[in-house]
Design brief:
CATH architecture: Beta Barrel
Strand content: over 45%
CATH topology: Lipocalin
Number of strands: 8
Order of helices and strands: EEEHEEEEE
Distance between the termini: 20 Å
Strand order of the largest sheet: 1-2-3-4-5-6-7-8
Shape: elongated
Oligomer: single chain
Number of domains: 1
Number of helices: 1
Structural class: mainly beta
Helix content: under 10%
Length: 180
Protein backbone atom coordinates (compact mmCIF):
# COMPACT_ATOMS: atom_id res chain seq x y z
CA UNK A 1 0.00 0.00 0.00
CA UNK A 2 1.18 3.53 -0.68
CA UNK A 3 2.57 5.74 2.02
CA UNK A 4 1.01 8.83 3.58
CA UNK A 5 -0.53 11.15 1.00
CA UNK A 6 -0.44 13.57 4.11
CA UNK A 7 0.97 16.60 3.28
CA UNK A 8 1.03 18.85 0.26
CA UNK A 9 0.51 18.72 -3.43
CA UNK A 10 0.51 22.23 -4.67
CA UNK A 11 -0.12 23.59 -8.05
CA UNK A 12 2.67 25.55 -9.55
CA UNK A 13 2.93 26.85 -13.07
CA UNK A 14 6.06 28.71 -14.05
CA UNK A 15 7.61 29.41 -17.42
CA UNK A 16 10.31 26.74 -17.21
CA UNK A 17 7.88 24.08 -15.95
CA UNK A 18 4.75 23.29 -17.88
CA UNK A 19 4.04 19.84 -16.42
CA UNK A 20 0.61 19.66 -14.84
CA UNK A 21 1.08 16.66 -12.54
CA UNK A 22 4.02 16.06 -10.23
CA UNK A 23 4.27 12.76 -8.36
CA UNK A 24 6.55 11.36 -5.69
CA UNK A 25 7.11 8.07 -3.89
CA UNK A 26 9.59 7.12 -1.21
CA UNK A 27 9.16 10.31 0.79
CA UNK A 28 10.17 10.30 4.45
CA UNK A 29 7.72 10.91 7.26
CA UNK A 30 8.68 10.69 10.91
CA UNK A 31 7.03 11.37 14.24
CA UNK A 32 8.23 12.06 17.74
CA UNK A 33 6.36 11.63 21.00
CA UNK A 34 8.36 13.44 23.69
CA UNK A 35 6.62 12.59 26.97
CA UNK A 36 8.00 13.09 30.50
CA UNK A 37 9.08 9.45 30.90
CA UNK A 38 9.75 8.31 27.33
CA UNK A 39 10.87 9.51 23.92
CA UNK A 40 9.28 7.57 21.04
CA UNK A 41 10.44 8.06 17.46
CA UNK A 42 9.45 6.23 14.30
CA UNK A 43 9.59 6.84 10.56
CA UNK A 44 8.56 5.53 7.18
CA UNK A 45 10.11 6.08 3.75
CA UNK A 46 6.86 5.16 2.00
CA UNK A 47 5.24 8.61 1.76
CA UNK A 48 3.59 9.22 -1.62
CA UNK A 49 2.27 12.46 -3.01
CA UNK A 50 0.83 14.20 -6.03
CA UNK A 51 0.59 17.85 -7.00
CA UNK A 52 -1.67 19.25 -9.70
CA UNK A 53 -0.15 22.54 -10.81
CA UNK A 54 -3.14 23.70 -12.84
CA UNK A 55 -5.64 22.99 -10.04
CA UNK A 56 -3.32 24.16 -7.21
CA UNK A 57 -4.18 20.94 -5.34
CA UNK A 58 -2.19 18.31 -3.48
CA UNK A 59 -2.63 14.92 -1.83
CA UNK A 60 -0.30 12.82 0.35
CA UNK A 61 -0.73 9.31 1.75
CA UNK A 62 1.16 7.05 4.17
CA UNK A 63 0.38 3.51 5.26
CA UNK A 64 0.49 3.46 9.06
CA UNK A 65 1.81 -0.10 8.93
CA UNK A 66 5.10 1.09 7.37
CA UNK A 67 6.42 2.97 10.43
CA UNK A 68 9.64 1.55 11.94
CA UNK A 69 12.26 2.51 14.51
CA UNK A 70 10.36 2.23 17.78
CA UNK A 71 12.20 1.59 21.05
CA UNK A 72 11.05 -2.04 21.02
CA UNK A 73 8.93 -4.48 19.03
CA UNK A 74 6.31 -4.33 21.80
CA UNK A 75 6.11 -0.54 21.49
CA UNK A 76 5.57 -0.89 17.72
CA UNK A 77 2.85 -3.48 18.35
CA UNK A 78 1.10 -1.14 20.81
CA UNK A 79 1.32 1.70 18.26
CA UNK A 80 -0.51 -0.38 15.65
CA UNK A 81 -2.99 -2.20 17.90
CA UNK A 82 -3.76 0.22 20.73
CA UNK A 83 -3.36 3.70 19.26
CA UNK A 84 -3.51 3.75 15.44
CA UNK A 85 -5.73 0.69 15.06
CA UNK A 86 -3.79 0.00 11.84
CA UNK A 87 -5.93 -2.95 10.77
CA UNK A 88 -9.02 -0.73 10.65
CA UNK A 89 -7.35 2.60 9.70
CA UNK A 90 -4.46 1.51 7.51
CA UNK A 91 -3.45 4.92 6.19
CA UNK A 92 -3.23 8.61 7.00
CA UNK A 93 -3.63 11.38 4.43
CA UNK A 94 -3.54 15.11 3.81
CA UNK A 95 -5.16 16.69 0.77
CA UNK A 96 -6.28 20.16 -0.22
CA UNK A 97 -5.12 23.41 -1.82
CA UNK A 98 -2.44 26.01 -1.23
CA UNK A 99 -3.58 29.32 0.23
CA UNK A 100 -1.04 31.44 -1.64
CA UNK A 101 -1.20 31.98 -5.37
CA UNK A 102 1.46 29.62 -6.66
CA UNK A 103 0.68 29.87 -10.35
CA UNK A 104 3.65 32.10 -11.11
CA UNK A 105 6.37 30.61 -8.92
CA UNK A 106 9.78 30.29 -10.51
CA UNK A 107 12.84 28.24 -9.62
CA UNK A 108 13.75 28.84 -5.99
CA UNK A 109 12.66 28.30 -2.40
CA UNK A 110 9.31 29.30 -0.95
CA UNK A 111 7.30 29.08 2.26
CA UNK A 112 3.61 28.36 1.64
CA UNK A 113 0.54 27.38 3.60
CA UNK A 114 -1.40 24.27 2.65
CA UNK A 115 -5.06 24.14 3.66
CA UNK A 116 -6.66 20.75 3.60
CA UNK A 117 -8.09 17.76 5.34
CA UNK A 118 -5.75 15.75 7.57
CA UNK A 119 -7.11 12.24 8.14
CA UNK A 120 -5.55 10.13 10.88
CA UNK A 121 -7.14 7.20 12.76
CA UNK A 122 -10.27 7.58 10.64
CA UNK A 123 -10.88 11.15 11.85
CA UNK A 124 -10.64 14.04 9.39
CA UNK A 125 -9.71 17.51 10.62
CA UNK A 126 -9.26 20.67 8.55
CA UNK A 127 -5.74 22.04 9.00
CA UNK A 128 -3.49 24.76 7.67
CA UNK A 129 0.07 23.46 7.54
CA UNK A 130 3.14 25.51 6.69
CA UNK A 131 5.45 23.93 4.14
CA UNK A 132 8.75 24.73 2.50
CA UNK A 133 9.04 24.17 -1.23
CA UNK A 134 12.11 24.14 -3.42
CA UNK A 135 11.54 24.23 -7.16
CA UNK A 136 14.38 22.98 -9.34
CA UNK A 137 14.51 22.45 -13.09
CA UNK A 138 13.30 18.84 -12.91
CA UNK A 139 11.87 18.33 -9.42
CA UNK A 140 9.95 19.89 -6.57
CA UNK A 141 10.97 19.23 -2.97
CA UNK A 142 8.41 19.70 -0.22
CA UNK A 143 9.09 19.64 3.50
CA UNK A 144 6.85 20.32 6.47
CA UNK A 145 6.93 20.15 10.25
CA UNK A 146 3.71 20.22 12.24
CA UNK A 147 2.06 19.05 15.45
CA UNK A 148 -0.80 16.56 15.69
CA UNK A 149 -2.85 16.68 18.90
CA UNK A 150 -3.96 13.08 19.56
CA UNK A 151 -7.29 14.26 20.92
CA UNK A 152 -8.16 15.83 17.52
CA UNK A 153 -8.09 12.34 15.96
CA UNK A 154 -9.75 10.51 18.85
CA UNK A 155 -6.57 8.69 19.86
CA UNK A 156 -6.80 8.13 23.60
CA UNK A 157 -3.93 7.50 25.99
CA UNK A 158 -4.65 5.09 28.87
CA UNK A 159 -3.90 6.64 32.27
CA UNK A 160 -1.34 3.93 33.02
CA UNK A 161 0.95 5.15 30.18
CA UNK A 162 0.00 8.85 30.30
CA UNK A 163 3.57 9.85 31.28
CA UNK A 164 5.06 7.80 28.41
CA UNK A 165 3.06 9.12 25.44
CA UNK A 166 2.83 12.80 24.54
CA UNK A 167 -0.58 14.36 23.92
CA UNK A 168 0.85 16.17 20.89
CA UNK A 169 2.99 14.40 18.31
CA UNK A 170 5.61 16.26 16.28
CA UNK A 171 5.60 15.22 12.59
CA UNK A 172 8.16 15.88 9.85
CA UNK A 173 7.52 15.03 6.20
CA UNK A 174 9.84 15.33 3.18
CA UNK A 175 9.16 14.31 -0.40
CA UNK A 176 10.55 14.97 -3.87
CA UNK A 177 8.08 15.18 -6.75
CA UNK A 178 8.90 14.67 -10.43
CA UNK A 179 6.90 15.64 -13.50
CA UNK A 180 4.72 12.83 -14.77
Amino acid sequence: MNAFMLMIMMALAWPSKQAELWKGTGGLISFTSDAPLELIEAESNKLTGILNVRENTFAFLISTKTFEGFNSPLQQEHFHENYMDSEKYSSASFSGKFIEDVSELELGKYELRAKGMLKIHGVTVERIIKCFIEIESNKIRIESNFVVPLEDHKISIPQIVHQKIAEEIFVTAKITLQAS
